[in-house]
UniProtKB/TrEMBL annotation:
Function statement: Might have a role analogous to that of eukaryotic histone proteins.
Superkingdom of this protein's organism: Bacteria
InterPro entries with a match to the protein in the record: Hc1 (IPR010886)
Compositional bias (Low complexity): 59-83
The name this protein goes by in its record: Histone H1
Chain positions covered by the region annotation Disordered: 57-89
GO MF terms, alphabetically ordered: DNA binding; structural constituent of chromatin
Coiled coil: none
Length: 89
């Protein structure tokens, strides 16, 4: 849960700069918001990687159970296709 706390702290630290940028049109606050959002993106990617690695490690420890393959799609029956319009006389 430590990662969640870091993420939450980062978002909360940006609150004042968001307010300054959108409410008071402070350009410097916009720069800080963009910097914070880039840091948020980097942090999110690191957390995603950590979660995936932890998930894969636990699956390998459980005997390497594999996911079931998706069921093959059946071809549509020929009768379901739309018939060509009849010719006019």
């Amino acid at each position: 849960m430590n990662n969640f706390g870091k993420l939450k702290d980062l978002v909360m630290s940006l609150e004042e700069d968001f307010s300054k940028f959108y409410d008071k049109q402070n350009a410097a606050a916009g720069t800080r918001v963009r910097k914070g959002m880039q840091e948020l993106k980097t942090m999110a990617q690191a957390f995603r990687t950590e979660v995936q690695n932890t998930k894969n490690a636990s699956a390998a420890a459980a005997g390497g159970a594999k996911k079931a393959a998706p069921a093959a799609k059946k071809a549509a029956p020929a009768a379901a296709k739309k018939a060509a319009p009849a010719k006019k006389k």
